[in-house]
Amino acid sequence: PAPTAPRNFKLTVESSTEIKASWIAPLKLNGVFKRYVVRYGLSKDGMNKKVYPTTTEYSLTQLDEFSTYYVQVHAETAVSGSASSVLSAKTKEDAPSSAPVINKQETKAEDAHTIRVKWNEIKKEDQNGFILGYEVSYKESGTEKVLSFNATNTNTIITRLKPFTSYCIQVRGFTSVGKSPLSPCSDVQTLDKGPSHPLNVKVQAVSSVSIIVTWEEPAHPNGYIRAYIILYGTSKDVQSYEQKVTRSTRKRIIDGLNKYTTYYVKVRGRTLKPGNSSEVFNVTTFEDSPGPPKEFRAQVVTGADVHLTWKEPDNSNGIVRFYYIKIYNTKTGSQVGNVRNQSADEESDMQHHRRLIRGLKYYTDYTFTIQAVTIKPGEMANATARTEEGVPSQPRDVTTKLDKGGISVRWKDPQDHNGIITKYSVYFEGKRAYNTSFQHNHEIVLDETSRSTEISVEKLKPGTKYSVYVKAKTAKGYGTASDPVELDAPSKRPPIPKLPQVVEADVTTTTITIFLSPSDDTNGEIIRHEIIVELLGTARARRETSALPEYIYGFKEAQTNGDRFYIAAMFERRTLPVEFVLGNGKTYGGYENVPLKPGTRYKMYVRGVTERNGVSIQGFI
């Protein structure tokens, strides 16, 4: 078996580059001891370095300063034993091992007496502790007298220098333990005489087209300041415009600027020579209303849908947050719907924006306006489009009137033509409640100027309920039907039924059996059938008339009136029997079917009855 783990493992920091590790031998070696293996590194996963002591302590040397090391130990016999737990310890601080690097581009003279120095931090791996500050040393080139001071940041200003003089500048950092080496000498020459830069320069926007610049006198005028010069422009590197102000002025409003534009501003004084400029300040003028969107187009894509496209304004004058879209009926000038808002980020692609307007009216001229919106709406752009034709809406106020000769139908235009109406069609759909299989349809096609039509009664079926409606048509087809108007075509006299057939074998002295056929309901619903008997008398008697009298009564009343015609039976609606015994003495529908006289000639008729406006209409015989 393998050795157990070393015991009482501990670390002691000896210096910035040395850590001593110590432990007690394993409780059980379980074999012949060979050596110890100490693994260490700068992370738990990176303990790649190894040493192989044979004693129970070992000093790890040549370590990195101010760095945390992770250490573990195990014993070896013929096999590796169990490892101790991983311990960590941090080496002590030391003086930095390399110098800061002076930034030569940023280290420069600001005026005849001042040099601004800027340097980079010491490389992390060379700091060897916490950098408490920097020592800045300087001397006139070619001399030995060195002046120095401490700084806590990575930049500082050296003042009270001689004009137009070359200085050697060096920097070093320090920890609590010591100082780093000095950086190489960086030679910088102060400027010639002229004012130092104005102090406390402030730049502030006051409107979308103006800014205000304020400043204080330079720390070192270096003579009589005759004027201040404000340099400004839209480039940080080159300020193309300038304004000169008198020496007593400490502020100036600059106007006539572009809206929502960033300007770079610096100020310098002037004696006989121009002075040093201040640092460059930037300021952005306020937002304002934008110009009109570009290339605003309205295109009908299908039916009553219009696709709007546009580009951002040339002069946005701010951040375009969204767009206002309004729609007007070109003919009436009235606005259609509410203002539509569209985010500037919505439906956009490489500065191209789009919006689909749905649900407009067909065949209508529309004017579309659009405004970009920053902090307020800007100038409008507009576009026009006419939607395609569609089918019209339903004709209105359809009325019908029944005259003696026919039926007149009138209507009004559809509310929405949705195009050019080319024709109207009037439909008559006939049905009969008493005959569900019956259907009779009729259509009248009229030109676009018509608002009424007539149809003769002969073209309609008597006793039929018609649903009358009207449709208008454009190039796109027929629109919605009008609300239907119900119309009843009046019933007519029922047609002649088939002649009754006598069953010769069933004739007696007082009865005659006959087969009956009902009247056809072509001219209206048959509400009843009447069985009419004509008494002809003896065999030699002749019938004198071919038409039935206007009024025919039951047998008794006919006898009283001396009529030879009487009603022997009446059957409601379609209850007419196939076989009927005339003279059987029974009562049918309130009429007595009296026995016939022996040896007497009779003639029998079957008559259907329809109804018009509550009045019975007797059929033909």
From TrEMBL:
UniProt keyword terms in alphabetical order: Disulfide bond, Glycoprotein, Membrane, Repeat, Signal, Transmembrane, Transmembrane helix
Annotated coiled-coil segments of the chain: none
Membrane topology per record: Single-pass type I membrane protein
Domain Fibronectin type-III: 5-94, 100-193, 197-288, 292-390, 391-492
Keyword hit for S-adenosyl-L-methionine: no
Subcellular location field: Membrane
InterPro entries in alphabetical order: FN3_dom (IPR003961), Fn3_PTPRU (IPR057598), FN3_sf (IPR036116), Ig-like_fold (IPR013783), R-tyr_protein_phosphatases (IPR051622)
CC per GO annotation: membrane
Top-level taxon of origin: Eukaryota
Major localization class: membrane
PROSITE patterns xref list: FN3 (PS50853)
Name listed for the protein in its UniProt record: Fibronectin type-III domain-containing protein
Organism, as annotated: Pocillopora meandrina
